[in-house]
Amino acid sequence: MENKKVHPNWDAFTGIFSIGFGLIYGGMTYAMPRAAFGNPLDPLYFPMGVAVLSVIVGCILLAKSNVKASVQAWVNLINEDETKKFDRKRILYTCMVSIGYALVFDTLGYVISTFMFLFAMLVITSGLSEWKKNALVAATFAVSVFFIFNTLLAISLPPLPFMG
User: Sorted alphabetically, which keywords does the UniProt record give (predicted)?
Assistant: First the structure.
């Protein structure tokens, strides 16, 4: 008998994610408002095509995947050394901060939301011990860019909430 070594890969998990993404994206696409004139379904064709393609690719990936290899990849991820785990946490924190930035951008305005985003990113990369320098850099950048765009270039950015 041959001893077949399993090479870890993420194909099964990627397929499941792709199918889930396609189904959710397709559902949200179908719930979009219809066009007021012309063919009411015209705005839905492209996004629905993306959703269907995502589901098809996910099904192909899932069919071709080796579930044991994907489970092995997950086990390897869990058993990583502390340096790699710390790096993955920093990636996760970066994603979370970016999503938070997108969610509060219009509500808090450019200056406050960009300051919070940059400060959080600088803390993630350089640590909390440098918080004074991080706050100074984030504030300087946010205010400078706001001034340049609003005043010099006459391009509106979301103002501070109390400026209306």
Answer: Membrane, Transmembrane, Transmembrane helix
